[in-house]
Amino acid sequence: MKHMVSIGELLIDFLPEQKGKSLSDVKTFTKMAGGAPANVCAAFSLLGGKSYFMGQVGADGFGDFLIQELQSAKVDTTYVKQTDLAKTSLAFVSLTNKGERDFLFYRNPGADQLFSEDDVNYEVLDDAILHFCSVSLLGYPISKAHKSIIINAKKRNAIISFDPNVRKALSTDDTYYQSVILEYLKYADIVKISDDELSFITGIDHLGESIAFMKRMMIPILIVTKGKDGVDLYMNGQMIHEDGFLVDVKDTTGAGDAWIGSFLHQIAFHDDIKAISESDMAKYLRFSNAYAALTTTRLGAIKAMPTKEEVLKLL
Question: If you average pLDDT over every residue of the chain, what do you get?
């Protein structure tokens, strides 16, 4: 079985204890571990896989907390660094009554943005799954580290997984942000993208045309998630659809990360992802739909992720 290496942001999510209010009206927050690439690592390891997270936090209490949270999720933190040059990044979140989110980030720069590839043992990338997102591609040393690590991983026969996970609040230039995502798509063997991100990334408002644009990029496995409406996967000229699950949604934070983390855990048992059968792939999509759905029934990301037994019960 392949192991996972994930690189990017690791930060504190402050989730509101009052839903349906703007950030200005929220009175109290709950501290949670966050950062999409770290969440993906946690899902992979909680399901029984071996995962390593590469990133950086501050040499402060929040940084200590985040490292402890990853370790409690069985993530290997060998490549998590701490620095006193910047503080651990923070994200304050507001939730609608349906669990949808709005973000306010304290991260300019945050400790995660100053991460460099120094001290990384590249051998950990051998025959691995390398996962990354777009938030850490917008400048600072961590962007350069991504490029170096991704190129090195390609040479070491790693499977490259990219979830753009667009956060427009972190960029003042949408055109530049879009161009960065398009540049990194060319490295990916697996791309997971939500349907509401397609128009931003492709510049095309029509859903069918934006998917056609993505398919022309010849990504071996292209996944379009659609929330409660399920997921479409495109590979080998075929499209596989699996419906979602209706659950009582409390918080959508980390649901997409839980989805891709559980999906990558399942394909980690295959040496050749292009040879995965349509029937097996459909099973993997259904499991990940259930895993992500259950994550939304609790507050937070890592702490909200279900056990395999809970998923099998829902299935």
Answer: 93
Mapped onto helix, strand or coil, the DSSP state of residue 33 is strand
pTM above 0.85, yes or no: yes
Count of positions (residues) in the chain: 315
Which among 247, 226, 249, 254 is positioned nearest to 290, based on CA atoms? 247
Secondary structure of 278-303 in the HEC alphabet?
Answer: HHHHHHHHHHHHHHHHHHCCCCCCHH
Look-up of token digits 């855990």 = 265
Pairing of strands 29-34, 11-16: antiparallel
Q: How far is CA 164 from CA 193, 226, 275, 307, 309, in A?
A: 7, 15, 25, 26, 30
Query: Can you give the residue ranges of every domain in the chain?
Result: 4-314
Which two structure tokens, joined as six digits, stand for 217?
């990029």
Task: Domain 4-314: give its CATH code.
Answer: 3.40.1190.20
Residue 133 has phi, psi (to 5 degrees) of -130, -175
Which phi and psi angles does 18 have, rounded to 5°?
Answer: -120, 120
pLDDT of residue 207: 87
